[in-house]
Give the backbone structure.
Amino acid sequence: MERQEDGTLKAQKRAVELTTEVAQVQVKIEGSLWASLEKAGEDPDLAVLASDVLAWDVDFYLDVRAGDSMRMVVEKVFADGKLLRYGEVLAAEYDGATTGRKRLFRYTDPEGQTSYYDDNGQSARRGFLKTPLKFARVTSGFGNRIHPLLGYQKAHEGVDYGAPTGTPVWAVGDGTVRQAGWNGGCGKSVTLRHRNGLETVYCHLSGVAVSAGKPVSQKQVIGYVGQTGMATGPHLHYAVRKNGSFVNPLRLEIPRDAPIPEKDLADFRAKITPIREKLESGPVAVN
Ligand SMILES: [Zn+2]
């Protein structure tokens, strides 16, 4: 864009060449994951990508501690030599005090299905995600200094997650919307019925993004954290019902999807070997 002599601006379009590079990223967590990525010179949106890949194993609101480390192999798309965006995450590893080491690889099988698997070909996916909160930029100030979980309280039969208003809430599993909208002390809420017979309830939302009777898929945003109903501050009250009675969401044992079948294991190992080498290249950087 150029300013003309008469003061007006004149713009023109030109083609920009995009190049994709496969890069290894590593970060040691100090303060929040967000701040740690910024310090490491990466776009903190990488945290959103990582949390999406690791969503069945790591709760990026509760599980992140100073001293943890994260490594990724990710495509970086450059325009005129500047990072434009990230592409696919080819591998992600989170090694944390509360999570242990979780490491996943992106694999497309001979039938063309793409998913994430661990070193041994076990699926990353489960019927339920580890957390009802989708990691997002709105929570950038959230670090390990404030522990956002207020705990499972038998008295009101659920778990409270302190999180800023507007934090996206996602469906922990595929299901159908049983209820969406105002729901007494629960405020604006959503109730989902899942195929495994469980029901999940999400309360005190500032907004609801689904309607009753509609199907939802795992990771679909169903609403946003708020403080509607009986709530003294912004938080998500999350509850799980089994055969009509409440159970502790933090104690659920939800099985993983099917592993890579025997016939594809050799192909899987051959394809992830160079990615694993890239993932393991170099020590974890200290900020
Ligand atoms: Zn609660």
Summary: The radius of gyration is 21 Å.
